[in-house]
# Entry
Amino acid sequence: MNATSPEAAPGRIVLLTTSHRVAPGLLSWPAWQVLRAADAVLCADGAHPQLPYLREAGISVAEASPTAQELVDACAGGRTVVVVATGEGEPALTDGLARLAGSGRARMPELELLPASYDLPGARLLDLVQVMDRIRAECPWSSRQTHEGLAKYGIEEAYELVEAIEAGDREELREELGDVLLQVVFHSRIAEEDPDAPFSIDDVAGGIVAKLIHRHPHVFGEEKAETPEDVKEHWLRTKAEEKQRTSVTEGVPLGQPGLALTAKLAARVRTANLDVPPPHGEGIGYELLALAVRAEADGVDPEAALRAAARVYRDAIKETEERGRSGAENGR
# Structure
């Protein structure tokens, strides 16, 4: 028997990986081709979610956990063996194959890693929903939380997100976005338990998807928008139709910081082409209102501008304190 005969061919090992975030049975066409052409299909996990669908498709799957040497021997004669990987990815098997290949004692089959299903963008959100569901059920603190009890955390996380944006810290920004996302998922999980009007994270996501599509007719419809102002006009008009509001001030939360509130009202007035000058009055409140309106007209966020100035003020305070401490130490 020569080295090129079929009996001497080392064969092929295909490690087939799948994503638990994709419905079982939804495999790529190359994966189905490999599975149908394989001489043997093995899986160490008899409860693997893919197995019922593979068997329904007429593919015989043996429940087995071969060693690296056993798997290499099974490929002798040019055979192709597919290993349907478990959730852990078969690290013991792949490590064993690597050691066997490094030893030089065996003629190794062709090794191939074939992803049979891929995560779509946003797939990790499914993990977050699952983790939140378990925490809600098993954590003594999380299981007792209410919308009202969590409200303060939503405010805190929103401010921390803004701070990360203004600081330009990318790592902090990613983390704070996750904290804000957690608030959405947490509240949605609590809402599932409401006896009268329950809703889920899917209802929340479905609602915002429908809203975005409806308020972007220039993207999903036939209307045109050439400028950001055109987009705002579409947005306000469709929003007014949805809410059946009689005033542009409706929907503006009065509990937000004063400068942000004033700027929001001024933006609504400007976008709606209303001629409503800021009211005149005595006191610092009216002066601040006029400044906020002017800032909004100039395209400046007065709240962000004041925070930036406040940070400079904070730094000046700290420098003064440091000079005071240094002077006191030098005077001793």
Summary: Residues 160 and 294 are 27 Å apart (CA to CA). The chain has 13 helices and five strands.
